Amino acid sequence: MKILLLGGTGLIGKQVLLSLVFYPQIEKVFVWARNSKPNTNQNVPIEIHSVTWEGFQSGKTFVPDDVDAVFCCLGTTINKAGTRERFREIDYDYPLLAARQAKEKGIKRFFVVTAMGSHSESIIFYNRVKGELERDLILLKLPFLGIFRPSLLLGNREETRFGEKVGEFVSGFIPFGIFGLDKMRPIPAELVAKSMIESLLNDSNKPSESPVVKIYENDTMWKTSKA
After folding, report:
1. Which residues pair with 146 in a beta bridge?
2. Strands (E), 74-208
3. Per-residue pLDDT reduced to its tens digit, 61-100
4. Which terminus of the chain, N or C, has fewer Cβ atoms within 10 Å?
Protein backbone atom coordinates (compact mmCIF):
# COMPACT_ATOMS: atom_id res chain seq x y z
CA MET A 1 0.00 0.00 0.00
CA LYS A 2 1.02 3.59 -0.63
CA ILE A 3 0.19 6.44 1.74
CA LEU A 4 0.02 10.21 1.36
CA LEU A 5 0.83 11.81 4.72
CA LEU A 6 -0.14 15.35 5.61
CA GLY A 7 1.47 16.71 8.76
CA GLY A 8 4.58 14.56 8.76
CA THR A 9 6.48 16.95 11.05
CA GLY A 10 3.80 16.98 13.76
CA LEU A 11 3.62 14.80 16.84
CA ILE A 12 1.41 12.07 15.35
CA GLY A 13 2.74 12.37 11.80
CA LYS A 14 6.30 11.73 12.98
CA GLN A 15 5.13 8.62 14.81
CA VAL A 16 3.37 7.37 11.67
CA LEU A 17 6.69 7.52 9.83
CA LEU A 18 8.58 5.84 12.64
CA SER A 19 5.98 3.08 13.02
CA LEU A 20 5.90 2.03 9.39
CA VAL A 21 8.95 -0.22 9.81
CA PHE A 22 6.65 -2.68 11.62
CA TYR A 23 4.26 -2.93 8.67
CA PRO A 24 5.71 -4.57 5.54
CA GLN A 25 2.39 -3.99 3.76
CA ILE A 26 3.29 -0.29 3.45
CA GLU A 27 5.54 0.00 0.41
CA LYS A 28 5.84 3.77 0.02
CA VAL A 29 4.92 7.05 1.71
CA PHE A 30 4.51 10.43 0.06
CA VAL A 31 4.93 13.29 2.54
CA TRP A 32 3.90 16.90 2.09
CA ALA A 33 6.23 19.25 3.94
CA ARG A 34 6.31 23.02 4.01
CA ASN A 35 9.20 24.28 6.10
CA SER A 36 10.94 21.61 8.15
CA LYS A 37 11.62 18.17 6.74
CA PRO A 38 10.26 15.15 8.65
CA ASN A 39 12.50 12.52 10.18
CA THR A 40 12.07 9.49 7.97
CA ASN A 41 12.48 5.77 8.49
CA GLN A 42 14.90 4.55 5.85
CA ASN A 43 13.36 1.06 5.85
CA VAL A 44 10.34 2.40 3.99
CA PRO A 45 10.71 4.45 0.77
CA ILE A 46 9.77 8.05 1.54
CA GLU A 47 9.14 10.66 -1.12
CA ILE A 48 9.04 14.19 0.29
CA HIS A 49 7.32 16.94 -1.68
CA SER A 50 7.76 20.58 -0.71
CA VAL A 51 4.41 22.35 -0.82
CA THR A 52 2.95 25.75 -0.14
CA TRP A 53 -0.60 26.04 1.08
CA GLU A 54 -1.21 28.58 -1.65
CA GLY A 55 -0.39 25.88 -4.19
CA PHE A 56 -2.48 23.43 -2.21
CA GLN A 57 -5.51 25.71 -2.35
CA SER A 58 -5.09 26.39 -6.06
CA GLY A 59 -5.03 22.67 -6.82
CA LYS A 60 -1.45 22.75 -8.10
CA THR A 61 0.00 20.62 -5.31
CA PHE A 62 1.26 17.18 -6.27
CA VAL A 63 -1.22 14.40 -5.50
CA PRO A 64 0.03 10.93 -6.52
CA ASP A 65 -2.28 8.92 -8.74
CA ASP A 66 -1.59 5.54 -7.17
CA VAL A 67 -2.10 6.37 -3.50
CA ASP A 68 -4.24 3.97 -1.48
CA ALA A 69 -4.90 6.22 1.50
CA VAL A 70 -4.45 9.71 2.94
CA PHE A 71 -3.35 10.18 6.54
CA CYS A 72 -4.24 13.70 7.66
CA CYS A 73 -2.39 14.60 10.86
CA LEU A 74 -2.62 18.37 10.41
CA GLY A 75 -3.32 20.42 13.50
CA THR A 76 -2.20 23.35 15.59
CA THR A 77 -3.30 25.42 18.57
CA ILE A 78 -4.91 28.85 18.65
CA ASN A 79 -1.86 30.14 20.51
CA LYS A 80 0.54 28.90 17.84
CA ALA A 81 -1.72 29.89 14.95
CA GLY A 82 -2.03 33.42 16.32
CA THR A 83 -5.70 33.94 15.54
CA ARG A 84 -8.90 31.93 15.51
CA GLU A 85 -9.15 32.49 11.77
CA ARG A 86 -5.70 31.05 11.13
CA PHE A 87 -6.41 28.12 13.45
CA ARG A 88 -9.60 27.35 11.55
CA GLU A 89 -7.75 27.52 8.25
CA ILE A 90 -5.20 24.90 9.37
CA ASP A 91 -7.51 22.61 11.32
CA TYR A 92 -10.62 22.83 9.14
CA ASP A 93 -9.95 24.27 5.68
CA TYR A 94 -6.81 22.28 4.86
CA PRO A 95 -8.06 18.82 5.92
CA LEU A 96 -11.40 19.35 4.17
CA LEU A 97 -9.70 20.50 0.98
CA ALA A 98 -7.35 17.50 1.14
CA ALA A 99 -10.33 15.17 1.47
CA ARG A 100 -12.04 16.76 -1.52
CA GLN A 101 -8.92 16.39 -3.63
CA ALA A 102 -8.52 12.79 -2.47
CA LYS A 103 -12.07 12.00 -3.55
CA GLU A 104 -11.51 13.66 -6.94
CA LYS A 105 -8.41 11.50 -7.38
CA GLY A 106 -10.33 8.36 -6.56
CA ILE A 107 -8.47 7.70 -3.29
CA LYS A 108 -10.80 5.46 -1.31
CA ARG A 109 -9.45 5.78 2.23
CA PHE A 110 -9.09 8.95 4.28
CA PHE A 111 -7.92 9.00 7.91
CA VAL A 112 -8.00 12.15 10.03
CA VAL A 113 -7.09 13.09 13.59
CA THR A 114 -9.55 15.36 15.40
CA ALA A 115 -9.97 15.38 19.19
CA MET A 116 -11.92 13.93 22.07
CA GLY A 117 -15.07 15.97 22.57
CA SER A 118 -15.33 17.11 18.95
CA HIS A 119 -18.83 18.39 18.19
CA SER A 120 -20.09 20.89 15.65
CA GLU A 121 -22.24 22.61 18.30
CA SER A 122 -19.71 22.64 21.14
CA ILE A 123 -19.39 25.85 23.12
CA ILE A 124 -15.61 25.30 23.10
CA PHE A 125 -14.19 26.83 19.93
CA TYR A 126 -11.46 24.20 19.48
CA ASN A 127 -13.89 21.29 19.78
CA ARG A 128 -16.46 23.04 17.60
CA VAL A 129 -14.00 23.47 14.72
CA LYS A 130 -12.97 19.81 15.00
CA GLY A 131 -16.64 18.80 15.06
CA GLU A 132 -17.44 20.91 12.01
CA LEU A 133 -14.58 19.21 10.18
CA GLU A 134 -15.93 15.77 11.09
CA ARG A 135 -19.43 16.76 10.00
CA ASP A 136 -18.33 18.07 6.62
CA LEU A 137 -15.98 15.16 5.96
CA ILE A 138 -18.88 12.78 6.55
CA LEU A 139 -21.02 14.79 4.11
CA LEU A 140 -18.38 14.18 1.41
CA LYS A 141 -19.36 10.49 1.46
CA LEU A 142 -15.83 9.18 1.09
CA PRO A 143 -15.67 5.40 0.50
CA PHE A 144 -13.94 4.98 3.88
CA LEU A 145 -13.47 7.70 6.48
CA GLY A 146 -11.59 6.96 9.69
CA ILE A 147 -11.87 9.61 12.42
CA PHE A 148 -9.51 9.43 15.40
CA ARG A 149 -10.40 11.31 18.59
CA PRO A 150 -7.44 11.20 20.98
CA SER A 151 -7.44 12.66 24.44
CA LEU A 152 -4.43 14.62 25.68
CA LEU A 153 -1.48 13.63 23.48
CA LEU A 154 1.77 12.48 25.05
CA GLY A 155 5.11 12.77 23.27
CA ASN A 156 8.03 15.05 22.55
CA ARG A 157 7.04 18.12 20.57
CA GLU A 158 9.33 20.68 19.00
CA GLU A 159 7.46 23.35 20.94
CA THR A 160 6.39 23.24 24.59
CA ARG A 161 2.67 23.31 25.32
CA PHE A 162 2.25 24.26 28.97
CA GLY A 163 -1.25 22.80 29.33
CA GLU A 164 -0.16 19.45 27.94
CA LYS A 165 2.86 19.29 30.24
CA VAL A 166 0.66 19.98 33.27
CA GLY A 167 -1.88 17.41 32.12
CA GLU A 168 0.83 14.84 31.52
CA PHE A 169 2.22 15.37 35.02
CA VAL A 170 -1.17 15.18 36.74
CA SER A 171 -2.26 12.14 34.74
CA GLY A 172 0.60 10.15 36.24
CA PHE A 173 -1.26 10.14 39.57
CA ILE A 174 -4.70 9.12 38.26
CA PRO A 175 -5.52 5.39 37.93
CA PHE A 176 -7.68 5.78 34.82
CA GLY A 177 -8.18 2.03 34.36
CA ILE A 178 -9.50 1.51 37.90
CA PHE A 179 -12.07 4.30 37.60
CA GLY A 180 -13.19 3.32 34.09
CA LEU A 181 -11.88 6.57 32.60
CA ASP A 182 -9.95 5.12 29.67
CA LYS A 183 -11.84 7.42 27.33
CA MET A 184 -10.12 10.40 29.01
CA ARG A 185 -6.74 8.80 29.62
CA PRO A 186 -3.84 10.71 27.98
CA ILE A 187 -2.50 8.73 25.04
CA PRO A 188 0.97 8.56 23.48
CA ALA A 189 1.05 9.84 19.90
CA GLU A 190 2.70 6.55 18.95
CA LEU A 191 -0.46 4.62 19.86
CA VAL A 192 -2.64 6.94 17.77
CA ALA A 193 -0.31 6.46 14.79
CA LYS A 194 -0.39 2.67 15.17
CA SER A 195 -4.18 2.69 15.45
CA MET A 196 -4.39 4.61 12.17
CA ILE A 197 -2.16 2.11 10.39
CA GLU A 198 -4.05 -0.85 11.86
CA SER A 199 -7.31 0.68 10.65
CA LEU A 200 -5.89 1.07 7.16
CA LEU A 201 -4.75 -2.54 6.99
CA ASN A 202 -7.81 -4.10 8.61
CA ASP A 203 -11.01 -2.04 8.87
CA SER A 204 -10.75 -0.15 5.59
CA ASN A 205 -10.36 -3.33 3.53
CA LYS A 206 -13.79 -4.73 4.36
CA PRO A 207 -16.06 -4.58 1.29
CA SER A 208 -18.99 -2.17 1.44
CA GLU A 209 -21.40 -0.86 -1.16
CA SER A 210 -21.99 2.40 0.72
CA PRO A 211 -19.67 4.97 2.37
CA VAL A 212 -18.22 3.84 5.69
CA VAL A 213 -17.50 6.16 8.61
CA LYS A 214 -15.63 4.67 11.55
CA ILE A 215 -14.90 6.75 14.64
CA TYR A 216 -12.10 5.68 16.96
CA GLU A 217 -12.48 7.07 20.45
CA ASN A 218 -9.57 7.34 22.85
CA ASP A 219 -10.31 4.11 24.72
CA THR A 220 -10.66 2.21 21.43
CA MET A 221 -7.18 3.32 20.38
CA TRP A 222 -5.75 2.13 23.68
CA LYS A 223 -7.33 -1.30 23.15
CA THR A 224 -6.20 -1.50 19.51
CA SER A 225 -2.62 -0.67 20.37
CA LYS A 226 -2.54 -3.27 23.14
CA ALA A 227 -3.91 -5.94 20.82
Report:
1. 111, 214
2. 109-113, 144-149, 153-154, 187-188
3. 667 778 999 999 999 888 998 999 999 999 999 999 999 9
4. C
